[in-house]
From TrEMBL:
Role played: Produces ATP from ADP in the presence of a proton gradient across the membrane. The gamma chain is believed to be important in regulating ATPase activity and the flow of protons through the CF(0) complex.
Bilayer topology: Peripheral membrane protein
Protein's name according to its UniProt entry: ATP synthase gamma chain
Gene Ontology MF terms in the entry: ATP binding; proton-transporting ATP synthase activity, rotational mechanism
GO biological process: proton motive force-driven plasma membrane ATP synthesis
Gene, per the UniProt record: atpG
Matching NCBIfam families: ATPsyn_F1gamma
Length: 291
């Protein structure tokens, strides 16, 4: 059995840890609100792009873009959105398992001769992905939790250029979709090639015919599609960051709850031992008085 001094030291240590996890929970809550705000500010841009595309697709003409080209798939790129920091539960472990499942799924779909390129966004997921064999690991160190829109644009341009030059035939995003602070779901989406079904994300506008396009609808379509791809990648990156902070909040909350239970248990054990010592001293005193 531990002595009173040891129990007192453990109680102090757990108290200190509880203060740290509480502070980290507050920091993650502030970061979550900041990223959620950035995600909300992105949506008007996304919605306007979608309205423009719906107007174009609602006309009688058929539009083609190099980014919508469907071709035989020989090389697949997976962009995995992990975290730079830990203490967020099973966030990165679940993403790595999801990546392995995606590779197995693609092998079953396309065959085992398919080549893979992995873009690991985040130091933690990079440490797991770097151990994989027969997979090309791309450098995405310029994109992290402190990056801005320029870094997202750089990654989008790199993926787009490699797709257009036929170095990559498909780009798939793997990430956590943010539902609420207590719920984040693993999700994936095809970034390239862009499918017409994804483009028509909203209801096609039947009154698009009277629109006058300047210089012409085909040029506008080819201009809007790269913006659509960039906004998709930016939205996914923000969703991943939001999910990361939500996962960290839940992990710190669970740590706080466990610390409280441990403190109650240690305090009870400390009180019992203290009472036993007091009882033993009283018995010694009473025994001495009788003698």
């Amino acid at each position: 059995m531990a002595s009173m001094r040891e129990l007192k030291g453990r109680i102090g240590s757990v108290n200190s840890s509880q203060k740290i996890t509480g502070a980290m929970k507050m920091i993650s809550s502030a970061k979550l609100r900041k990223v959620q705000s950035a995600l909300e500010h992105l949506m008007p841009f996304r919605n306007q792009l979608q309205n423009t595309i719906n107007n174009l697709l609602g006309a009688d003409s058929e539009y083609q873009s190099p980014l919508t080209e469907q071709r035989p798939v020989h090389r697949v790129a997976f962009v995995v959105f992990g975290s730079d920091e830990g203490l967020c539960g099973a966030f990165n472990v679940s993403l790595f398992k999801f990546l392995l499942e995606a590779i197995n799924r693609t092998n079953n779909e396309l065959g085992t001769k398919t080549e893979y390129i992995v873009y690991p966004v985040g130091k933690k997921i990079l440490s797991s992905v770097s151990k994989m064999k027969d997979v090309e690991i791309a450098d995405v160190s310029y994109l992290n939790s402190k990056s801005g829109a320029d870094a997202v644009k750089r990654l989008t341009d790199e993926l787009t250029n490699r797709f257009l030059s036929h170095e990559i035939d498909r780009v798939e995003l793997l990430y956590f979709h943010f539902k609420s602070i207590g719920s984040q779901a693993l999700d994936s989406r095809i970034l390239l090639p862009v499918s017409v079904a994804d483009l028509a994300g909203g209801e096609l506008l039947s009154h698009a015919k009277p629109y006058i396009y300047e210089p012409d609808s085909e040029t506008i379509f080819r201009t809007v599609i790269p913006l659509y791809v960039r906004s998709n990648l930016h939205e996914t990156w923000l969703e991943s960051r939001t999910s990361e902070q939500a996962a960290r909040i839940m992990a710190m909350q669970m740590a706080n709850d466990n610390a409280k239970k441990l403190l109650d248990s240690l305090q009870l054990e400390y009180n019992k031992l203290r009472q036993q010592n007091i009882t033993a001293e009283l018995l010694d005193i009473l025994g001495g008085s009788v003698q």
